[in-house]
Write a structure and sequence with these properties.
Layout lengths: L5 H11 L5 H8 L11 H8 L4 H14 L5 H10 L1 H13 L1 H9 L12 H4 L3 H8 L5 H20 L5 H26 L1 H6 E7 L1 H4 L9 E9 L5 H20 L10 E2 L12 E2 L1 H10 L3 H7 L3 E5 L1 H15 L8 H14 L17 H15 L11 H10 L5 H25 L10 H10 L6 H17 L1 H15 L10 H10 L5 H12 L4 H18 L4 H15 L5 H7 L1 H12 L3 H8 L18 H14 L3 H28 L10 H32 L5 E7 L1 H4 L9 E9 L5 H20 L9 E2 L12 E3 H10 L3 H6 L4 E5 L1 H15 L7 H17 L18 H15 L11 H10 L5 H25 L10 H10 L7 H22 L4
Parallel strand pairs: 2-3, 2-4, 7-8, 7-9
Antiparallel strand pairs: 1-2, 1-5, 6-7, 6-10
Helix pairs in contact: 1-2, 2-4, 4-6, 4-7, 5-6, 6-10, 9-11, 10-11, 11-14, 15-17, 19-20, 19-24, 20-21, 21-23, 22-23, 24-25, 24-26, 24-27, 25-26, 26-28, 27-28, 27-29, 27-30, 28-30, 29-30, 31-33, 32-33, 32-34, 33-34, 34-36, 41-42, 42-43, 43-44, 43-45
Length: 995
C-alpha cells in the first residue's frame, strides 16, 4: 500500500535528481529486482549524477533482470557498497544504450568493472591482447571486444582518463583486435599463413593513436613471400588472409559487428590490389601517388602481422612523406581535397556536422597536417601522427603561436569529446550533432554541463567551432606576421626560411617579395602597424584563397601606402566587417579592378558601405556628370571630371561583380549568373552613355557656348544599344544631326563633324583614367561614308541602298546622348527596316545565313580554337545573337515583345511567343550568359579585352575562380564551356540554319 504523499515526494526527488520521466522512473524503481536497494539514497544520487538518469535506471533494471538468481545479490551489494563500480557501471548505462544492450546479453560482463587497481586504470596494448586472447571465432571476438570497450567507456565517462588517453586506448584496442583477427584468419588457413609474410599498417585515426568509439579502421596491407616460396602465390595467399581479416571485423553476426576495415587508402584505391609487396608500394609512391596519399601516410603505423616487414615499410615511406611538400601543386591538391569533402556534405547537415563541416574536426586535422608537411621536412620534432601532439610540437617550434595553439587544442578536445559521446550512445558511426532535445540534454550532461545542458552545450559548441573557423588565420598567417614584425623578443618565431616555405606552400609564388611587403606593412610600434598586424592574418588567408595571392598582397601594400595616413582607411577595414574581405577579393581577382582603384584609392570607401556596390541609376549618373562638366573651366577639365566619374563607377561595377561571383564568408556567391551579366551590361552601358553625354556637352561649351548650330544625337548600336557592354567594349554609335532653323546645311554639317572630332579627342586624351573609344563603323557605307548624316540622308540611303545586314545592325539601335527628340525620330525612321512588315522574305533569310557562314570561315583569328572563342566560336555570342536577331526580323512585326535591343529579353519573348521551345531557349541563354561572363572575366583578370581564354596558367585559374570553379579545376571549366556551347550550336543549326 502506498503511503499518502509518498508518490509526490518521490516524484519531486526524481525530478531534482535529473530524471525527465519521473513516473516511469518510479515504476522501474518499484521493480522486484531492485527491492533491496530502491530506498538507498546512494543509488538515487548516483543515478542522478549520470548523463541520462532515465537511461541509466532502465539499463540497471535490464541488467538486474538478466542476472542469475545467485548473482543478483552480489551485483546489488557491490553497487551500493563500492563507489568505483557504482560510478563506472551507472556512468556507462547512462551514456550508452548499446553497452547496456551488451550487458543485458552478457550479464556477467559487469564484473570486469569491479577491479580498481593502478594497472586497470590505464591498460595498454598487452592488456587488451590478453582480453581478446580467448576469442577463437568472430562471434567470441565481438563479445570480448565489447567487454574491453566497456572498460574504456567506463573510465572515460567517469573522467578517470582524458580524451587523448581514451582515443589512444581505443586505438590500442583496435590494434589488439586486428592482431586477433589475423590470428583467427591464419588459424583458418594455415597453408596460406606459411606461404607469406603479411604486415598490417594502420592509417587514419587508428594509425595516429586517436581513434573514435566507432570509426572505420583504415589499413594498408604489405605482403612478401616467406623464405623459399613463390612471390605470386605468396601474394595470393596474403590477399586471402587480408580479406578474411577484414570480414572477421566487418561482417554482422549475432553479436553485431566490430567496425568496418577500410583498405581504400592503398595505392590505386579500390582499383588496386589489396596486398602489394614493399617494392610495389614504393614504385607506386615514387611515380604515381597524389599529394593526399602522402598526407594520409603521415599517420601510417605498423600494427599487426610481420613486425619486421611493417618496420621496413614505415622506414621506406617516411622520407617520401616528408618530401611531399616539394611536389608541384602540393597546396592546391590539399585544399582541393578539403573543399571536396565539404562540398559532399548534404546542405541540410552542414550545420550539424562535427567532423567535416566548417569549423569542424577535419579543419583542424587538415591544417595541422599541412603545417607538418611544410615544416616537417627540416624539423623531425613534427613527425607525429597524433593531431594534439603535432599541434603541441608546432607551438614548441614556433610554427604556431602558443596562445593560438592552446585555443585550438581546447576547441579540438571539446569537439572530439562531443563526437565520442554521440557515438558512444548507440555505438554507431556518426558525426552529426543530434536534433532531439533529450539527446542534446544527455550529450550536454555527459560533458559536465548540468545547469542548462542544452543551451550550455550549443553555446560551447558554437564558441569552439568559431575558434576553429578562424584557424587558418591563427595557424598559417599570424606566425608570419610575428616573424617579420620585429616586436619584443621572448617567443620562438618562424625563421625567414620557414616563413618563406610556408608562404610558398600557401600559394604565394614569390615568398621573398611577400615577406618584404609584410615587413613594410606590419613592422614597428605605431598604431597603424598594430592595426595591420590585426588585419593581415585574415587578409592573407583571403588572398591565398584566390588565384593570385601575390597580386592581392602587392595591391594591398600599394593601397595602404596611398591611404595609410588617412584616418578613416584602416578604421574602415578594422571596423566594417565586409570592407576588408571585399578589398581582399577585389585586389586578388585580377588587374582591372586594382588598376582602377590605384588611380583613386579613396574608392575603397565604397567597399565598406552596405549600399556602396549597388549600381547607380542612369539619371543620377547623368546629373553628376553634367553638373561636373558645367563647373569645369575648359573642355579638357570637363571631360577629365566625366572620365573620373566613369573610372569610379567602373570600379564600383567591377568590385560588385567580383564579390558577387566569389561570394564572401557572410554571403554566398550569386547563383543567378544571368542577373550578374545583366547588371554589368546595364551599368557599363549607362556609364558609357553619360560619359559621351558629358563629352558632348564639354565639346559644345568649349567652342559654341550654349548651343550647337545643329541639333545632334548619338545613337548606340551593337552591345552599346543592347545594354550589353563589357568592361573592354568600344562604344559602337551612329551620329545624326538636323540643322537649326536659319542655319546653312554645310555650316551645320561642319559643326556636327567638328563636335564629333572634339568628343573623340577629349575621350582619348592620355590621363590616369581609361580612354573611351567611339566606333562609328556601322554607319551607312561604313568607313567610306560620311561620319554624320541628317535624317533625310539616312532615309534616302536606307530606302535605296540598305543591305539586309544593315537592317539587322539597326535591331540594337537606341538613342544614348544628345537631342532626345531627334533620337526618337531616328528610331521611328528605322523601325520599318528592322521590323519589316510581314517579316523577312526568303531571299533575305538566305542572305543573312550566307553572311553568317562567311563570317564564321573568314573572321575567326588564325590559330584560334573555335570551341573556345567566345564571340565567333561554336555556340558563342555571335551564334546566339544572330539566331535571336533572325527571329526578331521575321516575327517582330507581329510580336511586340520582340521589339527590344537586348538579347536575353528578345530570347525570352521568342519563347513566350512559342517561336522557340523551352529547352532550346534555356540552352541558348545559358551559352550566351557563359560566353559573356568569360569575356568579362578575361578583362577583369588581364586588364585588357579578349575573346578567348588566357593561355597563362595563373590567369586561366583566375578566370575559373571568377566563374565559380574550385582551385585546380581549370580542365573541368573548359570541358563545361565546350559542352554548353556545343549544345547551343546544335540549337543554332536547327533554328538559324534550318538544319
Amino acid at each position: 500500500m502506498t503511503v499518502p504523499g509518498r508518490r509526490s515526494s518521490t516524484f519531486s526527488r526524481l525530478l531534482r535528481s535529473g530524471f525527465t520521466d519521473p513516473s516511469t522512473a518510479a515504476r522501474l524503481l518499484d521493480e522486484p529486482v531492485l527491492a533491496s536497494v530502491r530506498t538507498d539514497p546512494v543509488l538515487l544520487d548516483a543515478l542522478g549524477a549520470t548523463a541520462d538518469p532515465d537511461l541509466a535506471l532502465l539499463g540497471l533494471v535490464r541488467l538486474a533482470e538478466a542476472q542469475a538468481p545467485e548473482d543478483l545479490p552480489r551485483l546489488l551489494d557491490t553497487l551500493v557498497s563500492a563507489k568505483p563500480l557504482r560510478d563506472r557501471l551507472l556512468g556507462v548505462l547512462g551514456a550508452s544504450e548499446a553497452l547496456a544492450d551488451h550487458l543485458a546479453r552478457h550479464p556477467r560482463d559487469w564484473q570486469s568493472l569491479v577491479t580498481y587497481e593502478a594497472a586497470d586504470l590505464h591498460p595498454g596494448l598487452a592488456d587488451f591482447e590478453r582480453g581478446l586472447a580467448g576469442a577463437q571465432d568472430p562471434v567470441h571476438l565481438r563479445v570480448a571486444y565489447r567487454r574491453c570497450l566497456l572498460s574504456i567507456a567506463a573510465r572515460d565517462v567517469c573522467g578517470t582518463i582524458d580524451l587523448a588517453e581514451t582515443a589512444a586506448e581505443l586505438a590500442d584496442l583496435a590494434t589488439a583486435t586486428l592482431r586477433a583477427a589475423l590470428r583467427i584468419a591464419s588459424a583458418a588457413a594455415p597453408a596460406d599463413a606459411v606461404l607469406c609474410r603479411l604486415a598490417v599498417i594502420a592509417m587514419g585515426k587508428c594509425g595516429g593513436n586517436e581513434l573514435n568509439y566507432v570509426s572505420d579502421v583504415d589499413v594498408i596491407f604489405v605482403g612478401e613471400a616467406a623464405p623459399g616460396h613463390d612471390e605470386a602465390k605468396a601474394i595470393q595467399a596474403a590477399t586471402r588472409l587480408a580479406s578474411h581479416l577484414m570480414r572477421i571485423c566487418s561482417e554482422t553476426t549475432v553479436e553485431g559487428t566490430i567496425w568496418p576495415v577500410d583498405a581504400n587508402l592503398r595505392p590505386e584505391g579500390r582499383n588496386g590490389p589489396l596486398v602489394r609487396t614493399l617494392s610495389s608500394h614504393l614504385a607506386y609512391y615514387q611515380r604515381w601517388a597524389k599529394t593526399w596519399e602522402f598526407q594520409a601516410l603521415l599517420k601510417a603505423r605498423a600494427v599487426a602481422g610481420d613486425a619486421a616487414l611493417g618496420a621496413e615499410y614505415i622506414n621506406a615511406i617516411t622520407p617520401l612523406v616528408w618530401q611531399a611538400a616539394e611536389r608541384e601543386n602540393f597546396v592546391a591538391d590539399v585544399q582541393k581535397m578539403r573543399r571536396r569533402v565539404v562540398d559532399n556534405i548534404p546542405a541540410a547537415q552542414v550545420d550539424r556536422e562535427l567532423k567535416l563541416g566548417p569549423g569542424g574536426l577535419r579543419d583542424v586535422e587538415f591544417a595541422v597536417q599541412l603545417l607538418q608537411l611544410v615544416h616537417g621536412r627540416s624539423d623531425a620534432t613534427l613527425h607525429s601522427g597524433t593531431t594534439l601532439d603535432a599541434l603541441q610540437a608546432l607551438a614548441a617550434g614556433g610554427y604556431v603561436g602558443r596562445a593560438d595553439a592552446a585555443q585550438l587544442h581546447d576547441a579540438y578536445r571539446f569537439l572530439r569529446a562531443m563526437e565520442h559521446r554521440i557515438q558512444l550512445y548507440r555505438l554507431r558511426r556518426t558525426h552529426l550533432v543530434p536534433e532531439d532535445e533529450n539527446d542534446l540534454r544527455r550529450l550536454g550532461r555527459s560533458l559536465g554541463l548540468r545547469t542548462e545542458p542544452v543551451s550550455e552545450l550549443n553555446k560551447a559548441w558554437r564558441r569552439h567551432a568559431s575558434v576553429v573557423r578562424r584557424l587558418h588565420e591563427k595557424l598559417f598567417y599570424r606566425p608570419l606576421l610575428d616573424a617579420v614584425a620585429q616586436l619584443a623578443p621572448g617567443e620562438t618565431r618562424l625563421s625567414p626560411r620557414a616563413a618563406g616555405q610556408r608562404l610558398e606552400a600557401l600559394g604565394y609564388a614569390d615568398p621573398v617579395a611577400a615577406l618584404r611587403h609584410l615587413e613594410a606593412l606590419a613592422s614597428g610600434v605605431t598604431r597603424k602597424a598594430a592595426i595591420q598586424r590585426t588585419l593581415l592574418p585574415v587578409l592573407l588567408g583571403w588572398f591565398a584563397d584566390s588565384a593570385d595571392p601575390d597580386a592581392g598582397l602587392l595591391g594591398f601594400r600599394k593601397v595602404s601606402d596611398a591611404l595609410g595616413k588617412t584616418p578613416w582607411y584602416l578604421r574602415l577595414l578594422r571596423d566594417e566587417g565586409a570592407a576588408a574581405e571585399n578589398l581582399a577579393r577585389v585586389l586578388s581577382a585580377g588587374r582591372l579592378a586594382p588598376d582602377l582603384l590605384m588611380r583613386a584609392p579613396e574608392a575603397v570607401a565604397l567597399l565598406g558601405d552596405p549600399g556602396g556596390l549597388a549600381p547607380r541609376t542612369h539619371e543620377a549618373l547623368e546629373q553628376e556628370v553634367l553638373a561636373a562638366v558645367g563647373r569645369a573651366p575648359n573642355p579638357e577639365a570637363a571631360v577629365a571630371a566625366a572620365r573620373g566619374v566613369r573610372r569610379r563607377e567602373l570600379f564600383r561595377t567591377a568590385a560588385a561583380d567580383i564579390i558577387g561571383s566569389y561570394g564572401t564568408e557572410d554571403s554566398p556567391a550569386e547563383e543567378d549568373h544571368g542577373a550578374l551579366v545583366d547588371r554589368v551590361g546595364s551599368a557599363v552601358s549607362d556609364l558609357t552613355a553619360v560619359t559621351i553625354a558629358g563629352a558632348l556637352r564639354a565639346a559644345v561649351q568649349g567652342h559654341w557656348g550654349d548651343m550647337l548650330p545643329t541639333r545632334f544625337a548619338v545613337i548606340g548600336v551593337g552591345r552599346f544599344g543592347g545594354h550589353e557592354l563589357g568592361y573592354g567594349s568600344d562604344a559602337d554609335v551612329l551620329f545624326v544631326h538636323e540643322p537649326r532653323e536659319g542655319v546653312d546645311e554645310q555650316e551645320a554639317a561642319k559643326a556636327a563633324q567638328a563636335v564629333i572630332a572634339e568628343m573623340r579627342r577629349l575621350l582619348q586624351v592620355p590621363t590616369a583614367d581609361p580612354p573611351l573609344l567611339i566606333d562609328a563603323d556601322l554607319r551607312p557605307e561604313g568607313r567610306s561614308g560620311p561620319l554624320v548624316r541628317t535624317l533625310p540622308s539616312y532615309a534616302a540611303y536606307y530606302r535605296r541602298w540598305a543591305l539586309t545586314w544593315e537592317s539587322q545592325a539597326l535591331l540594337r539601335a537606341e538613342p544614348v546622348a544628345g537631342d532626345a527628340e531627334l533620337g526618337a525620330r531616328f528610331i521611328e525612321l528605322v523601325d520599318p527596316l528592322r521590323y519589316p512588315a510581314e517579316g523577312l522574305g526568303e531571299d533575305a533569310v538566305r542572305e543573312i545565313r550566307r553572311l553568317k557562314a562567311r563570317m564564321e570561315s573568314e573572321r575567326l583569328p588564325r590559330g584560334a580554337d573555335p570551341t573556345l572563342h567566345t564571340k565567333l566560336g561554336r555556340g558563342g555570342l555571335s551564334d546566339v545573337e544572330w539566331t535571336v536577331q533572325l527571329l526578331q526580323m521575321r516575327h517582330a512585326w507581329a510580336e511586340p515583345g520582340l521589339r527590344t535591343t537586348r538579347t536575353r529579353p528578345a530570347l525570352a519573348a521568342a519563347h513566350a511567343a512559342g517561336l522557340i521551345p523551352t529547352e532550346e531557349a534555356q540552352i541558348l541563354d545559358e551559352a550566351w550568359v557563359l560566353a559573356t561572363r568569360v569575356r568579362n572575366a578575361v578583362m577583369l583578370v588581364r586588364g585588357r579585352a579578349g575573346d578567348t581564354f588566357p593561355s597563362d596558367a595563373r590567369e586561366l585559374a583566375a578566370v575559373a575562380r571568377y566563374l565559380g570553379y574550385a582551385e585546380g579545376t581549370v580542365g573541368e571549366m573548359l570541358d563545361d564551356y565546350r559542352r554548353i556551347t556545343r549544345r547551343a550550336r546544335a540549337v543554332v543549326d536547327e533554328l538559324f540554319y534550318g538544319a
